[in-house]
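Exercise 7. Given the components listed, write out the predicted structure of the assembled complex. Treat all entries as one system.
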Amino acid sequence: MKDIFAIARTHVVTALRERVTLFWFLIFPLFLLTLLSLIFGSVTDNEDVQFVISLIAYPQSAADLPFSASAAIEEAFTEMATPDASGRAPLFVLHVPSDGQDLEAFLDAEVTELRRGRRAAVLVLPEDFDRQAMTALSDASSAVAGARLYMSSTNVASETASSIIDQVFAELDRNLLSRMGRFDESQAVRDVTEWVGQAESEVAYIDFALPAIVLMGFFTSGLFGVPGAILFNRDLKVLRRYWVTPLSVSRYLAGFGLGHLSLCALQFVLIVLVGTYGFGASIRFSSPTAIATLILAVVTFMAFGFLITSLVRTANAGMATANILNMPMMFLSGMFFPVANLPAFMKVVILANPVTYLLESLRQSVGAQEGTMMPSPWTYVVPLLWIAFSTLVATRRLRWDVER
Amino acid sequence: MTAFAALLKNEVRVFTRDKMTLFFTLLFPLVFVLLFGVLMGNMGDVDQADFGWVDVSTSDDETLPHVLEDAGLHSVRRFETRPELEAAISDQRTDFGLVWDGANLVFLYNATRLQENYAFQQLAAGITAEFNIRKQDAFPVLELTHIQAGKIESTSWFNLVLPGILAFSILSSGLFAISGHLTHMKERNILDRMLVTPMRPALLLAAIAVVRLVMGFVSTLITLGVGIVVFRMTFTIDWFRYAVFVVCSTLGTMGLGTVIALLVRRPSSASNLANVLAMLMMFLAGIYFPIEFMPPFLRTLSSWMPLTHMANVMRYVTGVIDMSQGRFWITSAVFLGLALVLFPMMGRYAVRPLRR
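Answer.
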């Protein structure tokens, strides 16, 4: 057993001494976890989100009207741009033209700012808006009062701000209708949100992201770590030196596997510690299903690494192949983007990808996912098939020494 | 001039014979475009949503089915019971659903689809508003028309992503081009042999730069072409500014790459360091994830990344976003300046025999 432990120790120490390996094994997953939590965590929690918008209300020639719809809209947005009593930052930062400013010039300037990404939306209440609103209220067959909202679909902040402004308008619309007795607020049907599954509310982003980052760490370790270690050692003739000792390939593999498992365990502990204590993740990986999935993931990705190792001739080719496969396999598994509604031809790739099953299985086992795209046995069968296939190919093709 | 021509010819040969470099320069960006084109093509579009609903009320009012028909959903399926609907939502056969009990509209969401639920909830709010208005035979008074501030090029998230991919491919090929090549030449002692000839180091750098520049330019055109042909994307390309910026930014990032060549000894180390830098910048520069919601300190960090500025200028020259003329020319000049400063300096220090 000593030789196996010695090989395992060598593998761990070598990996930890390599700064690049350290980066991909530990720093990059932690960096990504931090980045995603900071970006999407604040969005889903609605914390610290603020939109810079402009409101341009053209003068209304309707002093005779009983009320002003444009004034109600201006008031609503001004209120939403004012900090509350607790001092919390308001939802909107509102830009309005100053007194006497040329409105057309202001509109042009604000739309330009929107195109340059410095505004989330520009709301325009045209002349005669109040009169149109009044006419629409008194005569259902007349045209509605139209406002314009300039926005940019390529800007996520603009998209989000636009949907919030839509809701504000819908609310104001109902207020106006009820004020005129055309809508009975007490008869209005409420919409209620309920979550399907065991969760009482939407899963926190960190709980959703943490299993993905753990798996990403295992995946990159297998994909880059295995070909890197084996092929560089082979090309640099380090392996050849092992083979002149009594060490057999199977014992070397056992030591290598143990070392790889130890590295993944270290990686797992660090990522989960940061996720739990740094970002407040509440999920636990202690259930038997979660532990089984984690072990299955390490073995699957290690086998996949051996598959690549056996298919290429040099270490550089191995790294290049791993680089080519890395992004597509990660992104086409649902790690970072939803894949449920992709076209059929892409579904084939997704369903052949072992990462998809392991991710679904892990998320489900820690309560961060309800149901899976494929029935439960497949989440284990497909990775096991990959292990069998990879082992078969590697057994037949992998060379343990440089060609003479 | 003869020496430069000979070096240039040599570099063309080396580049075209190296299948790996050819693949990573010309074809690898396509993998990203095809991948993200499919992933992001319909991102946030609720018209792809499959909706399910159950009516457990005793009313035979037809208002709700009509509202759902007009809601712009991809499909609307009626379920017999709530458990059936919940099972479909849980298994993601249905994206979200509704139970109408005659008093409340109970919208059901899968608690774990948090990347999509926001869009579904917006749609649900619209359904409720429309249902209430129609149920009381009222008509909306206010109408809010959305107007795209940009041109047709700026109507989808992927339009923003593709120029970012172009910028990333310029950055990564620029960083790798000089660092990988020079360290490779050093490792194989090719550089030592060339340095005993009267060749000027700057000429060698210039020859490498010219070949990689042309190939990088071709690569951006292929990537852009695939986006336009395969995903039917629309761009209004300002070819003059496009060419100016691709040249300036490629040379500038090559200048940064020569710094890497100075710092490391082995090609694999150069490639690793360049890979790490490129990857960090890719995530911080808002290529795939929006930076609008990043905390202020990350946005500040992002603004210091060359890739952030490269991506913004590429979006500008393809007509996706607007930018002031001054900002465009200053950004281009900064990248060109980087090349002008770093190339001669690094020619002196990086084009040297391997330290032993």
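Discussion: Residues 49-187 of chain A form a domain with the abc type-2 transporter like fold fold (CATH 3.40.1710). The mean pLDDT of chain A is 85.
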